[in-house]
């Protein structure tokens, strides 16, 4: 029993040391950009051969009021270090569907604001549900998502966290999703294909991708 306890203590200490030395970092892969109806966006090819772990955060939001049956998101891995002949599908899924409700942001909301003033909350909080919303900025890279948690009818909506960028002349959309994908250690390169041809008469969408990586243990 004593030997077993010593072994458990040794393994626990070893794991703690490994975790303490892990080097983690984040990086932007694909900045926010709009994809027209019936168009395809090819994300950046990213080398992850030096990563022990890679976790993708893929965001997608509807950006007009057209009924939408989904956008196909395909994460591809390459079996080669160069070229475009060896891509294969790691996973694919359909992004959000529905009909988004756009609402203009009233005036300017400063970075850090959690209360976003709007003229109407109709559609933005009809089902009284906590959910992600998308804020489209006239500069696409300054667009962002926020977690909607409450509202004052036809006055404002409240987000869980303060916005990152000042929003002037921006528009809220109430259908947005965030997905996380864990890539295997064996992966060398990846890219994301955002296929907005799935619904030929659907909406425009905004997409982005970031990653978290472990590069040293």
Describe this structure in words.
It is a single chain. The protein is mostly beta strands and 217 residues long. Helices cover 9% and strands 47% of the residues. It contains one helix and 17 strands. A six-stranded antiparallel sheet has the order 7-14-10-11-12-9, with no helix packed on it. Strands 2, 3, 5, 6 and 16 form a five-stranded antiparallel sheet that branches. It has a four-stranded antiparallel sheet with strand order 1-17-4-15, with no helix packed on it. A hairpin with a 7-residue loop joins strand 10 (131-136) and strand 11. It is globular and about 55 Å long. Residues 5-17 have low confidence and may be disordered.
What class would the helix/strand composition place it in? mainly beta
Q: Taking Cα atoms only, what radius of gyration do you get, to the nearest Å?
A: 21 Å
Count all strands and give the number. 17
Order of neighbouring strands in the sheet with most strands: 7-14-10-11-12-9
Helical amount = under 10%
What summary fits the major beta sheet? 6 strands, antiparallel
Mean pLDDT: 90
The proportion of residues in beta strands is over 45%
Give, in order, the helices and strands: HEEEEEEEEEEEEEEEEE
pLDDT under 50 segments (min length 5)?
Answer: 5-17
> What overall form do the CA principal axes indicate?
globular
Straight-line N-to-C gap:
31 Å
């Amino acid at each position: 029993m004593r030997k077993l306890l010593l072994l458990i203590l040794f393994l626990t200490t070893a794991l703690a040391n490994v975790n303490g030395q892990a080097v983690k970092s984040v990086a932007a892969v694909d900045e926010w950009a709009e994809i027209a109806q019936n168009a395809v966006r090819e994300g950046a090819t990213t080398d992850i051969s030096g990563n022990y772990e890679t976790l993708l955060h893929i965001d997608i939001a509807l950006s007009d009021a057209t009924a939408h049956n989904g956008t196909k998101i395909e994460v591809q891995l390459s079996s080669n270090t160069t070229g475009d002949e060896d891509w294969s599908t790691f996973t694919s899924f359909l992004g959000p569907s529905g009909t988004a409700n756009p609402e203009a942001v009233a005036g300017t909301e400063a970075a850090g604001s959690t209360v976003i003033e709007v003229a109407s909350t109709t559609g933005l909080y009809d089902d009284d549900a906590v959910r992600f919303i998308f804020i489209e900025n006239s500069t696409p890279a300054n667009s962002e998502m926020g977690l909607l948690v409450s509202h004052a009818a036809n006055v404002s909506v409240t987000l869980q966290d303060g916005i990152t960028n000042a929003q002037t002349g921006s528009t809220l959309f109430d259908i947005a999703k965030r997905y996380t994908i864990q890539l295997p250690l064996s992966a060398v390169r990846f890219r994301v294909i955002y296929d907005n041809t799935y619904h030929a008469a659907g909406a425009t969408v905004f997409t982005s991708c970031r990653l978290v990586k472990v590069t040293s243990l």
